[in-house]
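Input sequence (366 aa), recorded before submission:
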Amino acid sequence: MDRVLVESVGSFLRDRELLHQRYHMAKGEIQYDDMRKIEDYFIEDIVGKQKQHGLKIITDGELRRSWWHLDFFLGFEGIEKTYPEEGYIFYDEETRAESIGVIGKIKATEHPIIKDYEFMKKFEDDEYKVKITIPSPTMMFYEIKREQGIESYKKIYLYDKDLEEDIISAYIKVINDLYDKGLRYIQLDDTSWAKFMDNNYLNDMINNEEDPQKLLETNVYLINSVIKKIPKDMNVSIHVCRGNYHSTYFANGGYDKVSDYLFKRLDVDKYYLEFDDERSGPIDVIKDIPKDKEIVLGIVTTKNGKLEDKDKLEAKIKKALEYVDKDRLKISPQCGFASTEEGNIITEEQQWDKIELLNDLSYLLK
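Predicted structure, token format:
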């Protein structure tokens, strides 16, 4: 495979017919196996479109998921779906009120993500490589600890350290199972770091007598403990996101506030970072990323369909090249186009126009 210069973060808009069929499955009118066949059809279509638009690292578009994170968590033993009184609070919008609860020890047996990858394998060859996206283990830890979940998880895990270790073990098994099936590229999606970048969330932590430094240590421990127990030739990347739901977000702030932990201590191979607007902070922070790690700059937004000014994007890439060599740099959208099945407020045509704009800019990295 030639050097890849443009990537997607992972998710793409769902076809309306796919959403319609998923609605019928939720009502019990379509069986699980039949739904997977319907999903297979739409995934083949989205893979074809990725190839058509020049993407060499391909995903299933996360089309089998309603949520980018909860669906994955529900594939573990000991986890059930819950319906809290309120959803996640984003700027200008509250999400669907869904979460997870702990009903037993967390274990990985036959996680459905394995079957998902087995379907995707047929699209791999010398030119195209499959990437599987999953939520970071930090996301599972914090989701379980959300206020409405404390009562349930404390019945199973009196000590958070025991919860951490079971999450780590479950992730290690799933990733190793994927490796055994042939996967060599996995992406951890992670919004937990964003709260440490945002002064409002930091103040809330302090007011709640939480120690931000201790929580950052936990982030590093959870991720690195998983990476240490998987094969060295599994490429592990992390996408550090400030939230993505129906074209809105939940946090602001630059990566400089977490640089010592995120860049200098994580054992990942690659960083997907958002630099699409003023919420992103200064781009010069990428100089803190070790020279043996790759960087994917998310320079076009997935939050709206307006096509960015090409000259401004060129200037942003050239600015980044002042701090890192071009052989370490790639470009991408800032996030997925549909981190949940609602999708962002953008058309399919605009979605692909964004990818083509990135293709037009890739000459700067050659």
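Checked by second reader. The chain is about 40% helix and 15% strand.
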